[in-house]
Design brief:
By secondary structure, the chain is mainly alpha-helical. Helix content is 76%, strand content 0%. α1 packs antiparallel against α8, α7 packs across α13 and α12 runs antiparallel to α13. The radius of gyration is 21 Å and the shape is globular.
Length: 297
């Protein structure tokens, strides 16, 4: 949590000093197509480095009246997109492709990348459908005051970020305790992986990798990779296991980490709505691919 607080504090200083506004021109064409306010370009640029920092800025803009609830929702959803482009190089090509091989790893990377593109298209479509009457769309329509004094910017950052950090720490503790309690009670372990594997016609030996994947995708892939390489598991079967594992993994990630972060920043209603929407899109992409793979077998 120390790193989270430091990130929030430094981001707050840069926001107070208006530094992000100087590089927002990079994303302004995309924001314009989506009919979001020009200021959303700044948060989108920030999200390439930190989604948490970008969402913190989005929440502050909404609180100060620069963004409506609808604009803040779509901006926050758009802030999740750069992570897909960034992790394509830092995770998919660097880890998944070597471990799972060019076919399985390449297909998984494409599916992962396509999820980000689909989310971006959904933001554009919803923005053009729902924000056409919003008045704050043109560049320069929003004027944000900026502080040139670092000390003043630091004070403003502390005033804005400390309440967010305290809410985040509290919700994170409660959520983590709840997940650990459910795990200790055996609720999470009660999922019958064998039945799931039978329904989707994957070999019994993939039950352990599938179960491990839900808790740790890297560990699950490390177990699956050799099975594909020695021929005991076909490429299609491996992709089915990966899609199944992803579908169960995403809700756990949402419960364990995303809900505490988003609700502490945006509040319960919008925070849960954002996590539910983002998770639903990701799960539906994998479910669609899963059905296509089942039809191919």
């Amino acid at each position: 949590m120390k790193i989270v607080f430091l990130m929030l504090f430094l981001t707050g200083i840069m926001v107070e000093m208006g530094l992000f506004n100087r590089v927002s021109f990079i994303a302004k064409p995309l924001v314009s197509i989506s009919r979001l306010p020009a200021i959303s370009a700044s948060t989108f640029v920030i999200s390439f480095g930190s989604v948490l920092a970008a969402n913190t800025m989005t929440a502050r803009l909404a609180k100060e009246g620069h963004l409506s609830d609808r604009e803040a929702f779509l901006s926050a959803l758009m802030n999740t997109v750069p992570a897909y482009f960034r992790e394509l190089f830092t995770y998919q090509l660097a880890f998944v492709l070597p471990v799972m091989g060019p076919i399985v790893g390449g297909m998984y990377a494409i599916i992962f990348f396509a999820t980000g593109v689909i989310k971006l298209l959904i933001v554009v479509i919803l923005g053009r459908k729902c924000l056409f009457e919003e008045p704050m769309v043109l560049e320069g329509s929003i004027k944000l005051s900026s502080k040139t004094n670092v000390l003043e910017a630091a004070k403003g950052s502390l005033r804005g970020e400390i309440p967010i950090f305290l809410r985040m720490a509290g919700i994170f503790f409660i959520t983590t305790f709840s997940v650990l309690y459910l795990d200790e009670m055996g609720v999470l372990a009660s999922l019958d992986a064998a039945s799931i594997a039978h329904i989707f016609q994957v070999p019994p030996e993939t039950i352990v990798p599938l179960t491990v994947f839900v808790a740790s995708p890297k560990a699950g892939m490390t177990l699956l990779g050799p099975m594909v390489q020695n021929g005991s598991l076909s490429e299609v079967e491996a992709l089915i296991v990966l899609m199944l594992g992803s579908m169960f993994m995403l809700p756990f990630i949402a419960l364990r980490s995303q809900i505490p972060n988003y609700t502490s920043i945006f509040g319960m209603r919008m925070g849960i709505s954002l996590v539910a929407t983002s998770t639903f899109i990701s799960v539906m992409v994998r479910l669609t691919v899963l059905f296509l793979l089942m039809m191919a077998t």
